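User: Predict NEBU protein's structure from this.
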Amino acid sequence: YTEAWDKDKTQIHIMPDTPEITLAKQNMLNYSEKHYTQAWDEAKKKGYDMRADAIPIRSAKASRDIASDYKYKETHEKQKGHYIGCRTAKEDPKLSWAARVMQLQNDRIYRKAYNDSKSHVHIPVDMMSVQAAKEGQALVSDVDYRHYLHQWTCLPDQNDVIHARKAYD
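Assistant:
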């Protein structure tokens, strides 16, 4: 009696086409990772259709070109009011002024080096008499002897400064 009961307990008799069973099988397929990625894995095995003249690629290139052209024109329209109106750099007064300043600066540096080297006099050792004559002329000259004091400026009511100026004179 108990053997028949245990045997009957282990055998379940469910109809395979009931709505609950059908729904459970469909949910099992939906939740299965293997079935979820099966179509993607098969597409990867086949490879890609990447011809250069494929319609999606051509449309992507065209949309990229359109977007690039649009961005360029938008930037151009923003900058249009900031242009100075000169066709070349030589017509622009600020750029031509900067070029002229740079040229003058280069000329000044070039001439400075020339003038520095020009002022150095190299006298041979046997011309000591010329050097002695120059030193004698410097001693005789009173340009180095006189040291002029600066010109005083003062208010008319500063008697002590006026008196000191007269004393220096």
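The chain has seven helices and no strands.
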